[in-house]
Each structure stands twice: as structure tokens, then as C-alpha cells.
Amino acid sequence: MLEVRNLSIAFKTSAGLKSAVRDIDFTIRPGEILGLVGESGSGKTITSLGVMGLLPPNAVVTGGEVLVDGVDILKLPPAELRKLRGRHIAMIFQDPMASLDPIFTCGDQIVEAILLHEPIGRANARRKARELLEKVLIPDPDRAMRSYPHELSGGQCQRIMIAMAVACRPRIIIADEPTTALDVTVQKQVLELLRELNEEVGAAILLITHDLGVIYEVADRVVVMYAGDKMEEATTADLFAAPQSEYSRALIDSMPSLGREAERLPVIERDSLGKVRSVRPEPRARPASSGPTPAEADRPLLEIRDLCKSYWVKPAPLAMPVEMCAVDHVSLSVAPRTTLGLVGESGCGKSTLSRAVIRLYKPDSGQILFKGKDIAGLSDKEMRPFRREIAMVFQNPYGSLNPRQTVAQLVEAPMVIFADGDAVGRQGRVRSLLEAVGLPATSAQKYPHEFSGGQRQRIAIARALALKPSLVICDEAVSALDVSVQAQVLNLLKDLQAEFDLTYLFISHDLSVVEHVSDTVAVMQRGRIVEYGTAAAIFGNPQEAYTRMLLDAVPTVGLVRGGKEAP
Amino acid sequence: MNTSIAGALLLAARKLLTAFIQLLVVATLIFSVMYIMPGDPVLLLLGTDSNPSPEAIASMRSQLGLDQPVLSQYFVWLWNALHLDFGKSLTNGYPVANYVMQNLPRTLELAFAAIIIAALIGVPLGIAAALKRGSMRDTVLTSIATIGISVPVYIMGTLLVLFFSLKLGWLPASGYTDISRNVLEHFRKLALPALALGFGLAASIARMTRSSVLEILGRDFVRALRAKGMSERRIIWQHVLRNAAIPIVTIIGLQLGNLMGGTVLVEAMFNWPGLSTLLVGAVSARNYPLVQGAMLAIAAAFILINLVVELLYSLLDPRIRRKRS
Questions:
Q1: What is the pLDDT of residue A566?
Q2: Which of A452, A499, A555, B12 can pair with A213 through a Cys bridge, CB separation 3.0 to 4.6 Å?
Q3: Over the stretch A446-458, which tens digit does the pLDDT of each residue have?
Q4: CB contact under 8 A, A103 and B317
Q5: A52 and chain B: CB distance < 8 Å anywhere?
Q6: Using CB atoms within 10 A of its CB, is residue A333 exposed (0-12), middle (13-18) or buried (19+)?
Q7: How big is the A-B interface in CB pairs under 8 Å?
Q8: Which residues of B touch A150 (CB under 8 A)?
Q9: H or E segment at A382?
Q10: Does residue B231 sit in helix, strand or coil?
Q11: Cβ(B301)–Cβ(B104) below 8 Å
């Protein structure tokens, strides 16, 4: 039905054509779900845009064919191609909120999509749009019809996008990372919806994702891409049971997976010949450290008692503001040199909590005991010595590094602020920090844009360690990274914990990552800690329904799920 | 839906209140400036060379209410101003309000004419440049816009007069004819000052439109619309332009407000009897009540125009309409 033959796409650059995708071929059969998996930069999105004829102006098809029912759509005139889009091939994008026009109601946008290909009149189109919204199981379809995108949640917006995509009963739906921006529980619902529609409408789905768990849950067959090349094509069962290519094996290995004990994650390396392989790096030898005194080890480094922080929000323009408890009587403690994993879905208050600990926000009530001293009520000036002790690593390594500063300046900045040592001493420390995070000494004089996402996160970590903190707060520190890069950074964090006697407050929405790094785990829901205990206890024997629901929603490789047989 | 209408009304009421407070602050500033300014209006009025007697000065003072305490002067003035009574002109005793009411519409007319010309030229040029980004057309249009911004209004005015009235003889070089007397002549005389003012504005509106349209074209939802199978033309007209309109309306509104005080040069050059002309005359004659009245009128027009623009946003952008302000 859709056949991609030897498709090659290149980007136009000032240095000539730079190849992005080389000789890709795959076929989608009616009614099947084909997964296209790869890391960022592997060319999976550009391939899908090529199939839709929607390449950005700086990209060109340099060879190959895209056959829809035997017709090469790359040779079709624009008007013909447009008739195909939305009618035969529909697309669902990664960021549902941004993919809807903010100034039209969702209802109008679905109606518009219907009328583009089926001139059935506005009233009929509205009725049909409402039926579609019921079909995608949106709560309160009438309200959704007249809502603007910003009035709905991300999951609801994605349902609107899906309703729009299936409006004209297309035969192929291309879904580009349709659940990446969503919470796990919402992701589960959206994936189930896609599966159901796939069976009901009979549309074939090309599912593009970086998440092997998602592929495992819903795809029938998989194409694995790496750096613009197709590495492997196999049925899902075969891929996970016996991956044929080295890369697929390495990719599957480097994924921290629920219920799989692994001290260190294997990482993907490329040798001098360009061959990829999976390597399980050895932990670095721990340098001689004085070690904790027994008294120190007993006392928690950070103890939070009954902490509250709320915001005042107005539910409607005329309503009285109501109190929204972002952090609601939270109590936690973290022992020195351990990691507390804090998990929860978006909006649960985990970031507010972390920002209260570092005192970016002043808590409303409660205590934050750091090394036994309450820092909750300190003034900015009194807080200053504690800022040396607590460091933070943020989610977005692109946004958190000043693009105009060299790496050396970035890493040195905290030491300059605290007037720590002389210029020569600081330079030496920058060098040793870069070495500790695994960056070459030559990187000191470079600027952030010269580094990849994973390397930037290493720079951010080096900066966090500049003042020898005892507590490091990692707020979704690996969420923006690819699986293999994520594995490297997680390994690094573990090494550094041993080397620098660090305590981590590790915040993440990703349960498998949290399980991998944490000693103790706290599960947060609507501002409250619903379950708190050792990692083994929480993941092995969750007590709360919410924890079980979260765990259940994680697409996991290797377990029997969704009625599918384990490979 | 009721909450959204109520929300819009509440928003409007709040903006109205803010505008009123702004106006009050401006009025206070105007009063204080006039009070602090050197020179005694009484001496000016009586004539410095005649060497007036202290009795004459005292009687003039009480006649003008200048013997009252400053605060009471201020409140009396404010109270009167609220009733559109700005006092009497010191030179001939006519009510200042009459002057203001006569000249304000002329300045407003000039400003609106200029902004309409600017929008009619600027918006299409900006769109045309954005749609062919990086092309020859874009480069040429952007360069013209840059030149348009850099040319001062008096140079542009001179060039227009040289070309359209002296060389071609199509339009009168300056002057004003009341619309009640001769409609055609009125607009013929409006044309050149409005064009002179409008050209520079057209350039900045064109640039704003270009960057605004480009920004929207890069959004994810435009790609999603293409994937729906919508034609490029419809995407531009129905979606991109409506989204791009918000910053464009902002800049048009701001420019219109600035024009209220910015017409000085053009009014002087084309002999257009507007508020600025009135104000300049009043300042050189130390006609304090007239200066205060004219300044307050300009400030009020500026604040009012900005108010209208802000209310326009909420029509254009549902996110502003429905969210708490």
C-alpha cells in the first residue's frame, strides 16, 4: 500500500549536500503498525516528512521513490499531492498543543479538516466532528468542540489531532512521536486508542518513536534506523528476541528497563571503522576518600518536614482565587551519599518541591533541614553559604548554558561568584572537573553550541560540581537525552556520586530511570507524597493504587502486556 | 459561555479603570509642570514693560485664582477638567475647550489618514517579503523599508511637495479647507501631509509584518495544516495572517498614539491647523490654560487609542479573552 524504495534525502548546506537519509526502504501493509525507531538525528522524522512530501525547504530528495498504490508521489504535482494528504495519508505530530492553531476552536479545526476533503456541508461536518470526538474518547465532547487548544490538556489535544487524522478515514497514519510529550498514563491511553482505531478504521500506522517500550507495546514490525541508515527490519517479536544488527542489540541493552537489575548501563560506541557496538564500561576506581564518620552517616543530609507551598489561581475570570497546593505537607529525608528518586506526572509538584529546597521559592510552611539546620525561613543573605552546598542540574542542556560563554567560563562562574580561590587555582579546578565528567581538556575554550546534548549535560554537571556541593538536585536531568546518551550520563552520575560523596535528589517522570538510580523513592501525586520507601520495595511491591497504575502504564520490553505474547 | 462574556466585560472594565488612572496621573504631571515652570503668567499678561502696580497684580491674581493654595488650585483645575472645562485662553478669553474641540479632530483625522495609508502599504509589502524569504523580492522590499524608516518626515514631506504639487501640480502644497466647505478640497489638502507621515510608518509596519508572518510560518501548526492537505494560499489567509495580526495591530496602535504628539513637524510644514499647531502657538505665547488643555487632549487621545488597541487584542486572540487577565 505504501512502499518506500531506496529513499535518500539530503540537506542543502553551504558546503554542498549533506546526506541525512540513505537508501531507506520499507513497506507498510494494510492494517499493520510499523514502528520506525531510532535516536535523534537518525533521520526518522525527515523520512516521514519525505513520505508526506512535506520536507523543509532546505531538504531535498536525492533518490528513490515513495509509492502509494503504485503511484510515485514524489513525482506528483503539488495540487495532486495535496489531495492525497489528509485523505489517504494523515499525520499526527509530537507536540499536540503546538500542532493546533491557537486562535481557532478545536471543533472548527476538525470541521475544517473534514470539509477539505469531503464537501458535506458545515452542519454535517460538525455532527461528524462530534462523533469523531466521541470515538477518540474525549471527556465532554461538546465542551471540547468549543474549546481552544490552550484550554485542553496535552493528552486531550492529542486526541483532537487523532480525531482530525482519522476524519477522512485515511489508509495510512503517520504518527511522529505521538506520545513523547505526554505523561505515562496518558501515553498508555493514547497508544491504546491508536491500536483500537487501527483495528476499527483499518488504517495502517507508521509509528515513529525513540522509545523501544512503545514499539514493543504496539508495533507489529519494526524498522531500526541509525544515522540515516536502516539497520534492521524485523517483526517486533524477532527484534526483541534476537536483534540481528549490532546497533539494535546495543540500543535494546542501553535502555534502563523496569524490573531489570543492572549496576551500569551499557553504552553505544562507534569504533574507528564506524561499526557500532554495545560496551558496558567499568566503574571508575574510587579515589581515596576520607569516608563518612559514623555520626554523619546516621543523620540525613536533607530532611523535609511538613513542607507546603501553594499558588493562588482563578478557575474562571470572575471567580475568587482558590488555593492550589503544589506541595502539600510533604515530608522526606535523604541520607548522605544516597539518591532519592522523586517521581510523578507533570503538574504533581515535583519541580516546585525541588525549587523550594534550593530556595528559589520560599515555602509557605514547614521545615527544610539541611545538615540539621532549618533553611526554610532564611533570608537571601543567610541562605548564601547554603547555596554552595546545594547544586542543580536542569532538564534542558540547550537552555541552561549561556551561549556566549566558553565552557571554562561556565564552569568557573560559580567559583567566581563565591570568590573561591585565585584565577590559577580556579583554572586547575575547571580542568579537573572537565576530566571528571569525561570531557577532553580542549573543550574548555569551546562554546556550548559546539557540543551535543549529552556533552552539554556533562558541562552542566561539571558546573554544578564546581563548588563541591554535597547535594545535587537533578530536575529531569536526563529526560531530554537519547537512550544511549542517557545511559552515559546516568553512569557518569553514579561514578561522580562515589567520587565526590554526592547526595542526589533525582526528579524524573521516567520510572525506569528512577528505578535504576535510586536508593529510596518517593511517588508524588497532586502535591502529596503517596508512597515513600526503598526502591526495591516500591518497584517490587507497590502498596498504593496510584504507584501501581504508574508502573503499569510504562511500556516495558520483555513482559507480557496488552494481550501480546512475550517474545 | 457566560463566564467568557463576563470575563471579557471585566477585562474591559479593568482596562477602563487603568486608563482613567493613567489620565489622572498625566493631568497631575501637566499641572505640576506648569506650576514649576519659570515666569509669572500674571506679569506676562499685564505686560512687563508697563511696570504694573502691586494692586493690579494682586487683583489679576485673585481673578485667575492664583492666590489660592496650590492644592486647592490643583483640585479646582482637575474638577473643571473632568467637566471638560480647561479655563479661558489668556490672550482673548475664549474657552480653551473650544480651541481643543476645534483642533483635536483635525489632528486625529491626519493621524488616522496616515496610519491607514501606512497599513495599506506596509502590511501587504511585509507579507510579500515574508512569503519569499531570502529572495530578490525580499531583499529589495526590506531595503526599501529600511530606507523608509531612516528618511526624516520633513525630507519626505519636501520631496512630496516638490514632486506632487510643484512638478506635477496635482495637489496643493499646504493649507486646510474645512470639510463642510469643500469636501474634495479638504481631502486634496489632507493627502500630502498624510502621505508624508504615513511613509515612514509604512516601513516599520512592513518590517513588523514580515517578521511576524515569518514567525507564524515556522510554527508546528502550519506544518500540521499542510499535512491536512490544505492549500498554501488558504493556510496563509485563514491561519497565518490571523495569528500574525496580533503584533501588527500592536505596532499600528502604538504608532497611532505616537502620531498624536508626533504631528508637530508635519502640521507646521503643511500649515495644518491641528492640536500641535495650537500647542506650539500657546507655548510661545505663555498661554498656560491653552497649553494645559492641548497637552491633556493629546495625552487623553493617546491613552484612549491604546485602550482600544488592547481591547482589540482580546477579539483577535482567544487566549487573552478567556484567560484571567
A1: 38
A2: A555
A3: 888 888 778 888 8
A4: yes
A5: yes
A6: middle
A7: 87
A8: 319, 323
A9: helix A380-389
A10: coil
A11: yes
Residue A260 C-alpha, separation from nearest chain B C-alpha, in angstroms: 38
ipTM for the complex? 0.75
Question: What stretches of chain B show up as alpha helix (H) in DSSP?
Answer: 2-36, 41-46, 54-64, 70-82, 96-131, 136-150, 153-160, 183-217, 220-228, 232-234, 241-262, 264-269, 275-284, 288-316, 318-322
- List domains and CATH numbers for chain B: 102-273 (1.10.3720.10)
Contact between A86 and B228 using a beta-carbon 8 Å cutoff: yes
Q: Are A230 and A224 in contact (CB under 8 A)?
A: yes
Nearest to B226 among A54, A87, A102 (CB): A54
Dist. CA A46–CA A11, nearest whole Å: 10
**The cell 507524597 sits on which residue?**
A529
Residue with cell string 504631528: B263
pLDDT value of residue A411? 92
Question: Residue A91 and residue B224: Cβ atoms within 8 Å?
Answer: yes
- C-alpha grid cell, residue A540: 517490587
The answer to whether residue B317 neighbours chain A at the CB level (below 8 Å) is yes
Residue B235 per-residue DSSP state: I
Nearest residue of A to residue B218 by CA position? A56
**DSSP type of residue B163:** I
Asked if B229 is an interface residue toward chain A (Cβ–Cβ < 8 A), one would say: yes
CA–CA gap between residue A263 and residue A283 (Å, rounded): 9
Q: Do B6 and A318 touch (CB under 8 A)?
A: yes
Q: What are phi and psi of B125, to 5 degrees?
A: -65, -40
Chain B interface, mutation test: which of A100, A103, A311, most B Cβ atoms within 10 Å?
A: A103
Which amino acid type is present at position A204?
A: A
B316 near A CB under 8 A: yes
Residue B47 Cα distances to B44, B64, B290, angstroms: 5, 16, 19
For residues A493 and A525, is the Cβ–Cβ distance under 8 A?
Answer: no
Q: Which chain A residues are within 8 Å of B4, Cβ to Cβ?
A: 317
Q: Which of A49, A52, A99 to mutate to test the interface with B (most CBs of B within 10 A)?
A: A99
Q: What is the pLDDT of residues A501-515, one digit of tens each?
A: 899 999 988 888 888
> What pLDDT sits at residue B48?
60
- How far does CA A49 lie from the centroid of its chain? 21
The domains located in chain A, with CATH, are 2-256+264-270 (3.40.50.300), 301-553 (3.40.50.300)
Tell me how far apart the alpha carbons of residues A413 and A419 are, in angstroms, rounded to a whole number: 10
pLDDT at B206 over 50: yes
B226/A contact by beta carbon, under 8 A:
yes
